[in-house]
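Figure 6 in text form: structure in, sequence out.
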């Protein structure tokens, strides 16, 4: 007698036949300074969701997880966070890459001690023996930590196939190709990622796009959760790599709101950050709707605070969105201004005008937001930017009664600004990505502000004397 095959039994058979042991790793940050401003490996967690729903057996090592019990036991330091969920990373000084061995700053790996990672890899090898190890990456100039992690995995798990993904191989595929990984995924759109996984012998059972992170990989409480309600950006700022990495896509808000509510409950979390690059696109059907559902689910009454730290588009802010943000207990709002220089505003993409910025601040203040919640993103060291432009913008923010967040310019490979610098000879071709770190760039780049000029400006800013 033949048994009827239903979609449910087909999926079960698929999972049983194709189940693989996959270790996900979020490596350290390699830098001269770092702080946990709502950092989570969202892309890796989204991928984890796909893999889990496809029936694979997953484990994760997140070197930036400050609340992991193993880290607390290893260091003897109890994780501490501010009320908004941010906090300091554990860090250890490491040898500088040769390209910056002259740098008068300490170079560190932020996150778990290397010994803890090595022991955990050995235990997983002995007790679980993963077939695949997927290493994530973010900033291109953090690659020394990625390379180190790959070497460590190869040493402790010589039979596992090591795959590298994230922004680094998308933006610098040739450089990432010599990382030591067995294969790199140089694409971030789901169709290409799915094809890459298939080429590596890793089947997935879903064609649909989901941006919901798989927070089940954290079996303990967390100080914050991070979500992307959308990826990509329809704007094309000359200094930004977002359009190079993702096509614009917005996730259905109903499912996202449910996932946020459930994850806050299961992880005892009271801080949620949205890292969208363009969260205010079509607000009536997207962000406004998301906020309304979160309010309906009583997240503000449960003590959950929301944060939008990635810079909202001033042009797109409405009074309705501002009112909903206030009701939903949004406690961090960063508004993108970048520069007051009209020429630079046009040259970099015409994303915002000063008048639009002023209007957005007026709207936020009218519904009750203050300097405690609202600040402006200002660029410093942007090519062609005068220091007085930054000073004038700081003084404007002071008059408006809002905070200031300085963003030091980073030349990102593939962006229009980067390519112009290369063509004009103001930036050497194929520089070590470490040199492009915005904290290191002013130490050697003669085409912009010196580190002394930037440090003096920051000192004046802290003293309120700009």
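Output sequence:
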């Amino acid at each position: 007698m033949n048994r009827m095959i239903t979609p449910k039994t087909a999926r079960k058979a698929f999972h049983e036949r194709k189940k693989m042991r996959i270790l996900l790793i979020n490596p350290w940050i390699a830098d001269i300074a770092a702080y946990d401003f709502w950092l989570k490996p969202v892309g890796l967690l989204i991928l984890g969701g796909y893999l889990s729903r496809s029936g694979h057996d997953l484990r994760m090592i997140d070197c930036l997880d400050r609340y992991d019990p193993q880290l607390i036991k290893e260091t003897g330091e109890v994780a501490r966070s501010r009320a908004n969920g941010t906090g300091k990373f554990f860090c250890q000084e490491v040898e500088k890459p040769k390209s910056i061995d002259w740098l008068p700053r300490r170079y560190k790996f932020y996150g778990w001690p290397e010994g803890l990672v090595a022991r955990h890899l050995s235990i997983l090898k002995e007790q679980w023996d993963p077939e695949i190890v997927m290493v994530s990456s973010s900033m291109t100039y953090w690659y020394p930590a990625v390379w180190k992690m790959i070497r460590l995995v190869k040493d402790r798990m010589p039979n596992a196939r090591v795959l590298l993904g994230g922004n680094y191989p998308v933006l610098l595929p040739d450089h990432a190709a010599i990382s030591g990984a067995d294969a790199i995924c140089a694409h971030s759109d789901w169709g290409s990622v799915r094809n890459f996984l298939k080429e590596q012998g890793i089947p997935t059972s879903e064609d649909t796009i989901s941006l919901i992170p798989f927070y089940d990989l954290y079996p303990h409480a967390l100080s914050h959760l991070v979500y992307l309600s959308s990826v990509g950006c329809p704007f094309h700022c000359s200094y930004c790599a977002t359009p190079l990495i993702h096509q614009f896509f917005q996730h259905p808000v109903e499912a996202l709101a449910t996932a946020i509510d459930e994850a806050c409950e299961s992880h005892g979390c009271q801080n949620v950050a949205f890292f969208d690059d363009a969260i205010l696109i079509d607000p009536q059907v997207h962000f406004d709707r998301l906020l309304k559902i979160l309010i309906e689910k009583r997240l503000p009454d449960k003590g959950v605070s929301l944060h939008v730290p990635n810079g909202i588009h001033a042009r797109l802010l409405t009074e309705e969105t501002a009112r909903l943000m206030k009701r939903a207990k949004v406690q961090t709002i960063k508004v993108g201004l970048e520069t007051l220089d009209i020429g630079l505003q046009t040259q970099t993409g015409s994303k915002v005008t000063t008048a639009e910025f002023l209007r957005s601040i007026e709207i936020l203040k009218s519904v009750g937001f203050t300097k405690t919640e609202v600040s402006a993103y200002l660029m410093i060291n942007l090519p062609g930017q005068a220091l007085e432009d930054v000073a004038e913008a700081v003084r404007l923010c002071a008059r408006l009664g809002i905070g200031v967040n300085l963003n030091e310019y980073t030349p990102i490979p593939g962006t229009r600004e980067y390519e112009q610098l290369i063509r004009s000879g103001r930036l050497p071709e194929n520089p070590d990505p470490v040199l492009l770190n915005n904290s290191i760039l002013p130490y050697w780049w003669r085409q912009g502000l010196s580190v002394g000029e930037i440090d003096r400006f920051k000192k004046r800013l802290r003293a309120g004397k700009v």
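Caption detail: Residues 224-462 form a domain with the TIM Barrel fold (CATH 3.20.20.70).
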